[in-house]
Amino acid sequence: FVAKKIGLEPNANEIKKGEEFINRFLPVIESQLNKTKYLAGEKLTIADFCLLASIDPSELIEIDLKPYPKLLAWRKNLQSQDFYQKTHKFYGECMMAKK
């Protein structure tokens, strides 16, 4: 999605590596969120912001998060908070904006 948006051809090898990374680590994140409210415990930390930035465009790049209900609930919770709403209601709004 991003490559095309900036006029580049998608790199199939890098896409494959990314998919392997996602398939390896999303189950780990889901497991952690089964134990704690946030990634590093019961308080919001920079780890949460980093992950949110990484998975926010999941729909745009066709990554299915439905197998990870805790991750989806965590994401929805963060998206509803003031820090997110003051920036944008949904990341996709920024990505879909015309130049």
What do you see in this structure?
With 99 residues, this protein is an all-alpha fold. 61% of the residues lie in helices and 0% in strands. The chain has six helices and no strands. It is globular.
Write the layout of secondary structure elements.
Elements: H1 2-5, H2 12-35, H3 46-55, H4 69-80, H5 82-85, H6 91-96
What distinguishing features does this structure have?
mainly alpha, 99 residues
The strand count comes to 0
How would you classify the helix and strand content by structural class? Answer: mainly alpha
Give the topology string: H per helix, E per strand.
Answer: HHHHHH
Report on the biggest sheet: none
- Summarize model confidence as the mean pLDDT: 88
Helix content: 55-70%
Oligomer description: single chain
Shape estimate: globular
Task: Supply Rg.
Answer: 15 Å
